[in-house]
Design goal:
With about 100 residues, the protein is an all-alpha fold. The protein has 7 helices and no strands.
Length: about 100
Amino acid sequence: LVEAMEVLETYCDLLLARFGLITTMAYCDEALLEPVSTLIWVTPRMQADVQEFSVVSKQLKAKFGEKFAELALTNQSENVNEKVIHRMGLQTPPKRLVESYMK
């Protein structure tokens, strides 16, 4: 979960840095597809822990449209970061990984 949160933090920083550009765009730029899609996708999974994701997701949905948001939520366009999907999964981490974190 920590690794997924680090990726999400980076994506939030990127969107903040590109905010001026995003406000002028009529569609989501290719370079921002993964960060935007990932933030929309993660919102229902993390909104209890990070309430701000709901606000960000609503704004992105308003900016890029319901259809774009639905594709991101279901990852039909396959733009959601694979590392985040894997880290947000319900499977338990390997014993070796747990032990390395404990050291």
